[in-house]
């Protein structure tokens, strides 16, 4: 875990530092194509370079794919499914005519980079570290989720007073992102869900429409957070006896050569 902490701190210094020096307030990050490129795309691209460089050096196994897929019931699939539904409704509830193509492409690129970097960091490096040792999968889930939520406190450095509340919302959505990885056995699913969720959220914060899709999304957002809280409790309790290393130990093969 100390190594994961170092990776996390360096990532924060790079990404949050570059966002800070952009001179754009957090609430205006995605107002235009130019602000999106300066405040999100460039910092996140730099963060991606750091993460890729670390993984190339460390050669950790099972960061992007589990050695064995953990069981995922239909109930555990509900949260990711509802997150997809809300994202689609958000996209349908936009005033698309007010967006320039360059603006949409810039937000899409930023969203893809968020999906790649934050999932590589949290559902990749951090989760892989938490699965090392004698922790249960329940504790690995809980600590990864809390760490992801706490990360959003860095938004205070970007003059975002709502960062304290974001901690809780981010942690809850992180539960759905964990389940996307768990259910498929690969982090690519979590990256895709994260990118879709943020893409729709970033755009709806700029030019929302007043239509049925937008109303449906607004109705479901509180529902998804309640569902996420219930799901997190169920996961932590249900997985309290499952060794976390089970996900990183290939069947019938000793766990050798892992380097967290």
Which key terms come to mind for this protein?
about 260 residues, mainly alpha, disordered C terminus
Short recap of the structure:
The chain is an all-alpha fold and 260 residues long. It is 68% helix and 0% strand.
Characterization of the model:
The structure is a single chain. The chain is mainly alpha-helical. The chain has one domain. 68% of the residues lie in helices and 0% in strands. The chain contains eight helices and no strands. The protein has helices at residues 2-21, 33-58, 74-92, 101-130, 137-151, 163-184, 187-204, 212-238. Helix 3 packs across helix 6, helix 4 (101-130) crosses helix 7 (187-204) and helix 6 (163-184) runs antiparallel to helix 7 (187-204). The termini are close together. Residues 252-260 have low confidence and may be disordered.
